[in-house]
Amino acid sequence: MIEISSLCKRYGSFTAVRSLDLVVPSGELFGFLGPNGAGKTTTMRMIAGILQPTAGSVRIAGHDLRVDPLAAKKALGFIPDRPFIYEKLTGIEFLRFSAGLYGEQGPEVEKRGQELLALFDLEAWRDELVESYSHGMRQKLIIASAFVHRPAVIVVDEPMVGLDPKSSKILKDLFREYTRRGHTVMMSTHTLEIAEGMCDRIGIMQRGELVACGTMDELRRTSGEDDALEDIFLRLTGDHVARELIEVLDA
């Protein structure tokens, strides 16, 4: 699971994340939403150990990221929104490299890597250099690398970017099965239909703060309307946008 307590990130006088408290339990697919600049990516990078928080703590599968960073990071797979990969490695070499970062190697890694490449239709490209991969293929390889060491927690930023419909469906099914087996997925996305259809609970960030969190039914009860997630999201983060648009068009 993911446990966040009083998490804060400041850049000089600017506060990107304000005293965030959140628990994402085992077996849950949690959707993390917010407009650009709300603090989502900063939060996810702190969870992944890429950014150091100004204050507060993060625990991954029971391991405090500040006290025992190696154990915490070993329990986590991180899928960024942009697939940065060593281009002079082949697909299978990149998966071996990724597994090696977590101290795993040998026949089990080879088998696991082959299964993941096959799952995302990359088997025929396993021995081709990554520099020859399309953007979508690189995204699929990054996703495969996050699963190769069998982490307890997956943190993913915009997972569907660059994926074709078949790969998107495979990834959705993979996330559902992953959480069904007791693991945790925290997913940031701007595609509200995906969040509404997939996630067990949804948290909405605005100006560095968690302004709403709960199941769709709980969010609807809080808003007092039987709305779609898009309406709830806009009401919490910027319902003035529609009014401004009308004013512009009427001007």
From TrEMBL:
PROSITE patterns: ABC_TRANSPORTER_1 (PS00211), ABC_TRANSPORTER_2 (PS50893). SMART domains: AAA (SM00382). The keyword Transport applies. Keywords: ATP-binding, Nucleotide-binding, Transport. Residues 2-232 form the ABC transporter domain. This is ABC transporter ATP-binding protein. The keyword Transport applies. GO terms for molecular function: ATP binding; ATP hydrolysis activity.
